[in-house]
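Hi all, long-time lurker, first post. I run a small reading group and we've been trying to get comfortable going from sequence to structure in the token notation. Rather than ask abstract questions, I figured I'd post a concrete chain and ask someone more experienced to write out its structure so we can walk through it together at our next meeting. Sequence below, copied exactly:
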Amino acid sequence: MTTPLSPHTPTPPPSSGTSASHSSGSASGSTGGLLRELGKWDLTAIGVNQVIGGAVFLMPALLASQIGAWSAIAVALVGVLALLIALNFAEAGSRFDGTGGAYLYTRAAFGRFVSFEVGWMLWVTRVTSWASVVNGLTDALGYYWPELRADQPGMAREMVITTVILSIMSINVRGIKQSAWVVNTLTVGKLTPLLIFIVIGLPYVSFDALRPEVALTWSQISTSALYLIFAYGGYEVVGVPAGEARDPKRAVPFAMVTTIIIVAIVMTLVQVVAMGTLPNLAVARTPLADASLLFLGVWGALLMTSGGAISMTGNNVGQALSGSRNLYALSEQGDLPSFFGRVHPRFHTPAVAIVITSLVALVLALSGNFATLAASSAVSRLMVYAGTCASVLALRRQGPASFTIPGGPVVPILALAVCVAILFGATPLQREVGGIALVVGAALYWTARWRNK
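-- Answer (accepted) --
Happy to help. Here is the structure in token form:
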């Protein structure tokens, strides 16, 4: 008797005279109580929305303070590296049509414990990213409302952070379709001011300011690389809601590659304009608003402040959407108690996972700041990237994928080496925080296994 494939099992290669089974059902069907409502452009919007969040509005100053005129070159180079890693997610994702992303890939490749740690770190990445971006949102709004800045802690800042997170939690609980609509709208809303900034700002760029004059130290390179891993991070969430996507084995690879191409172009040009128009970029609190003030005037500063707020709000919505699905997937596979995987009977969303993810992000947001949380998120994200690149090599032994990276093992090995090299460049404190997160995850895993037995 032939057993139908689970939605979380990699598709085996077709045997002679047969075709591979599909576990997703119809395009409008559902898996595990979740509805398949997302198309390839919805997934692309989720990816772009996750990458272009707070970093593009705040990172230009951080990079300029670290590596000066090298920053624009660094953004472009890390964009290429991000594409190499994203190709691994695209190949691995083309084998699956269930919810979970990297967690599912590593589960099929390396077993339950390794996959749990990857899935757990994927969730840690989401909540720390969300907490950092909501801090960036209040910093951006601080251009007009100084009480919201990080150096002016008080009730106003805490109230805004709390209101934003709880509002987004409510939107996500009410349905994937509503969440996707909000993400799509805010993605357009964030790209529009950035495109205006680029198109109008390029003629004002002083290209002398873009010419590097000093060599970089390894410390500068590694620190900047961590910031940029955070800045480019987010595309890994494209495969997480695959269980709610139509034809995910084709849609996920398309969205992965398209996301990186779009964001690499936008982020590189934004860094060029900021570097070439704002002389004191390294010390700017709101770099794009300050630069816009010089070549667009007051309305330009308002446009970039509004754009930053829209961008970070959209990113926050996406963090809640993808982070909760990570937690849901861990529960659905039996690696966390079933309580975490409860689906809302009316809205068909993982409501418990959404609420828990939102409340943890709220606690982190109220206790941290943008730069610290960004670095912590980058370290946990690199562990997820390394696990996915390694899983691509392992899964190839099980047969060909729907999408295969050309060049044999070259790209997965190169991407894995880059992840490991940047991890070694992290500070001892950053590696320690990542290690603690792994230990906490291991404790939860073995506790869940013991209770199940």
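A couple of things your group might point at:
Strands lie at 30-31, 34-35.
Residues 1-31 have pLDDT under 50 and may be disordered.
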